[in-house]
Design a protein that fits this description.
It contains 13 helices and 15 strands. The strands form 2 sheets. Strands 1, 2, 3, 4, 5, 6, 7, 8 and 9 form a 9-stranded mixed sheet that branches. It is elongated. The two termini are about 45 Å apart. The chain has 2 domains: about 160 residues, VC0802-like (2-Layer Sandwich); about 210 residues, 3-Layer(aba) Sandwich (Rossmann fold). It is of the alpha/beta class. The mean pLDDT is about 95.
């Protein structure tokens, strides 16, 4: 009886003619996640099997739980495809466990197998009852559910499934640019974008001396935490001080945040196009702050023709916080270092900005030249390989 890890695809099975593209991407993502392990992976349209050899299966499972596109992870046993072998190994497996009741469920993918699914379950169950004392069958609420899969090559048995992240394999949809602040919402938006198959790079607007090195390092730390769900992330750090000071000095205070966000979108679009990103992604949640009312979103979004994805737009704050804790970004996000979105905040920012007013206000500053300068002086950080200095956070 050979021990393997079985990967179940879940949502990938709905892709029909495109399914091979998704499975191939998942296969490559798993190989990259398990780099350093000398493993062998077999894939087909229904399952993937990983020969873990003598490696620590718990450590491998934990890595697989960070891979999008996996519905469930199963420690299974490969056995010969005949009823006597199935019965013998089922008894062998269950005799090592403690339980009072059980049920057998069979999936007969090989229709040439001489017994159908119900018959196989009944015959295997009868063998277990005969061999293991003081147990019973419970078809409604068993202590142990034994799965039997009869496939074209071998049979597989297992008792437990470990829930995977689901979604699509990261990167199968291409790349997007995440507008990453130091807050709670944008890292969650990046994680949810990964779940829909989008690989991400990130952009951060740095405004020294108004924002600190700690704020920048906080964002780098958040980006590092997101790398475990996809490939390496490039973080584009935009020097935003001149633009932000110009807005502060020249723009009606109630409109400062709106104009600032419009500048961020303009810059983000250019950086995205320069780096082959197909969409912009951000952590805006409808109505959460003044710049995230529907009117504000419409006015701010007006400066770009690139699609903007807002994965947390319809989640409330508590739902977003729950996800941030799950992905281990929450404690970093709440560190008390201001980013450029939290400085120069007016007492009463406009919640229903007028597009024509924005256009008139923007004529007061030479923003196109400042944007060119900012883009030409972007710092590109390869997040996975970035080394913090001694006084950096985390």
């Amino acid at each position: 009886m050979e021990k393997l890890i079985m990967i179940k695809y879940g949502e990938l099975t709905t892709k029909k003619d495109n399914m091979k593209v998704f499975i191939d991407r998942l296969y490559n993502n798993i190989k990259n996640k398990l780099i350093g392990y000398d493993i062998y992976i077999i894939k087909d349209r229904l399952r993937m099997f990983i020969d873990i050899k003598d490696y620590n299966e718990a450590a491998i499972v934990e890595k697989l739980r960070e891979v999008f596109g996996i519905h469930s992870i199963v420690i299974c046993y490969k056995i010969d495809k005949d009823l006597d072998s199935i019965k013998a190994e089922a008894v062998n497996l269950l005799s090592k466990l403690t339980f009072n009741s059980f049920k057998v469920e069979t999936n007969r993918a090989d229709k040439k197998f001489p017994y159908n699914s119900v018959e196989t379950s009944r015959l295997v169950g009868a063998s277990i009852l005969k061999s293991i004392p003081n147990i019973k069958v419970d078809v409604h609420n068993p202590d142990i559910l034994l799965h039997v899969e009869i496939r074209n090559d071998y049979s597989y048995i297992y008792v437990n499934e470990i829930e995977g992240l689901g979604g699509y394999p990261t990167g199968v949809q291409g790349k997007g640019l995440l507008m990453l602040s130091g807050g709670i919402d944008s890292p969650v938006a990046g994680y949810l974008a990964n779940k829909r198959g989008i690989d991400i790079d990130c952009i951060y607007f740095d405004s020294p001396p108004h924002t600190s090195i700690d704020a920048k390092n906080k964002v780098i730390t958040l980006a590092k935490k997101l790398t475990k769900y996809g490939s390496n992330i490039n973080l584009y750090v935009v020097p935003f001080t001149e633009i932000q000071e110009s807005i502060y000095k020249n723009i009606e205070p109630t409109y400062m945040i709106t104009i600032m966000r419009r500048m961020m979108y303009r810059i983000s679009e250019r950086v995205a196009k320069n780096n082959k990103c197909k969409i912009l992604i951000n952590g805006e949640s409808i109505g959460q702050v003044a710049s995230q009312t529907l009117t504000s979103m419409y006015v701010i979004n007006n400066v770009t023709c690139m699609p903007v994805i807002r994965p947390v737009a319809c989640l409330d704050k508590l739902e977003i916080i729950d996800i941030s804790k799950k992905i281990d970004t929450y404690n970093t996000s709440i560190l008390p270092f201001d980013d450029c979105c939290t400085i120069f905040v007016p007492k009463h920012p406009v919640i229903n900005p007028n597009l024509n007013k924005c256009i008139e206000y923007e004529k007061l500053i030479n923003y196109e030249e400042m944007i060119d300068i900012a883009i030409n002086n972007i710092e590109k950080i390869s997040v996975k390989n970035y080394k913090f200095v001694d006084n950096d956070i985390l």
